[in-house]
Input
Amino acid sequence: MMSSEGNQSSISTFILLGFSEYPELRVPLFLFFLSIYTVTVVGNLGMIIIIKINPKLHTIMYFFLSHLSFVDFCYSTVVTPKLLENLVVEDRTISFSGCIMQFCFTCIFAVTETFMLAAMAYDRFVAVCNPLLYTITMSQTLCSLLVAGSYTWGVVCSLVLMYFLLELSYCESNIIHNFICDHSVIVSVSCSDPYISQMLCFAIAVFNETSSLMIILISYTLIFITVMKMPSASGRSKTFSTCASHLTAITIFHGTILFLYCVPNPKTSRLIVKVASVFYTVMIPMLNPLIYSLRNKDVKDTFGKLVPTKLLCHSLKFF
Output
């Protein structure tokens, strides 16, 4: 157990209560979350593979999308296996270091996804509003910097918040009323004053949400104005269609996070917090590849060619 002069922690484990209040639902919930995780892994890794093997998808938009799929895969993998484990075993403990590390990685991937979606909105803005300058503006160097910046800022936010969590003392209570070690539940079991850590987390969350949403709103406002000026109805429809998948992903992701932060009193709304947490940590990583693949002909065509080929190869092995 980590300790320092300002941090006299005496507990080494936390207990993740998760959904233990509903013992009759353990098996159905396990099967439900296992199904979701399977679809998440197959969907996101499949999306990365499809983008890599189809030359038509070697574009800036799919460069961002492949990283979004990677982030979603990692995000779900940090959370879901432990959730599944706690549904089938009686010992729901997690080590102090394990809890801190789970928070650290979920923070990295949540912040990275926030700004990855903003970068994708800017990409759509340039593609629609400045198509002639698209290849110059969205250079490979700029796109690599946007992706690297998203990951880097996620790591910075995570390390800063983790440092202040480690400065707190954890003495007696080690019960976490959730299935995930997020910032709010960790500080709730601290026996020292978490004010600085809470205010810092709030400031980072507000900055991240405000800045990313401003980029998204400005980008799509300008896209809407440009599209409405198009003389062709078919042109307008096609442009809106190319943006629809991204807008859907943005709405689900930011809508869930804003809803979670707007819960008036988490102590009296634990079930609501758990359901919202399930949605943004487990459901959204599954939905993103489905949203993008179902609306994209090139992705569906590549998948259609890939699956029969693989099935044929496996069938030939039996002869």
Remarks:
- The radius of gyration is 22 Å.
- The first strand starts at residue 13 and ends at 16.
- The longest helix spans residues 96-129.
